[in-house]
Each structure stands twice: as structure tokens, then as C-alpha cells.
Design goal:
about 130 residues; three-stranded antiparallel sheet; mainly beta; two-stranded antiparallel ribbon; elongated; about 0% helix; about 25% strand
């Protein structure tokens, strides 16, 4: 991969505006690089810090309540909730930088477009346990 100097890597789009169905809303720009020719090495470094996915916001919560019934017996009520605020986190990963054989133009493929949610919707579980 050859980096084009002076071109920004990120498009500057807000993470709230990302939509996996809209190919025009890209997290990365597609013209910041060119694909080197056959048997040529590119000028890109091994690791590019800007080629990261959008931030991941995932808040989990849990609670526990123990109620003593007698000296040796108690009841424990436990609840755990994952992604409690139900935030959608999109992922870019899994999209190759080199286009596939059928699509030799990286601007028409899915490079830089979100693939869909990384984590599922809000989930929770409850448990009631008797200790003796």
C-alpha cells in the first residue's frame, strides 16, 4: 500500500451518522492510498494509528441482594445487564484494503464502510439462589 501525502485518512464523519447500508458514508477516505503494482513494495508503515474502528461504548451493570432468612439460610437475588444504555457500536473490521478481483476500484467497494453492529442489543439475566 502506498500512502498519498497530504490526504487525510479519516473522513471526519460523526459516529452517529454511520450507516452500514449507505456506501457514501465512510469512516476512512478511499483516496489516501494507492495500490502498488505487481511485485512492488509500498511506502506505508506496518501500523497506521488512524486505521482504527470507531470508539466502542458498552456499559454493563450488575446488582446483588442477599436476604437472611435464618442463621444458616439466605436468599440471593442477582441481576446482570449488558449494554444497558443500548448503544449501537459499528465495526469497520474485516474489510480488506486490497480490493477483490471483481472490484479493482477501492472507492466502489465497502472499504471504510461500517459492517454493522459489533455488540448486540441490551440483554439481561436474573437469578434467585437459596444458600444453606
Amino acid at each position: 500500500m502506498n500512502l498519498v501525502s497530504g490526504k487525510p485518512i479519516l473522513t471526519g464523519i460523526s459516529r452517529q451518522d454511520l450507516d452500514p447500508r449507505d456506501l457514501t458514508k465512510r469512516w476512512w477516505t478511499t483516496d489516501f492510498f494507492t495500490i502498488p503494482g505487481t511485485f512492488e513494495l509500498g511506502n506505508a508503515p506496518i501500523y497506521i494509528n488512524e486505521l482504527r474502528d470507531p470508539n466502542n461504548y458498552n456499559d454493563n451493570m450488575g446488582f446483588i441482594k442477599r436476604t437472611r432468612i435464618s442463621e444458616t439460610v439466605n436468599i440471593e437475588l442477582r441481576g446482570e445487564f449488558f449494554n444497558i444504555f443500548n448503544r449501537t457500536n459499528f465495526g469497520i473490521g474485516g474489510t480488506p484494503i486490497r480490493p477483490n478481483v471483481a472490484d479493482t476500484n477501492p472507492t466502489t467497494g465497502r472499504f471504510g464502510v461500517t459492517n454493522g453492529p459489533r455488540v448486540g442489543a441490551r440483554t439481561g439475566q436474573m437469578a434467585l439462589k437459596i444458600n444453606f
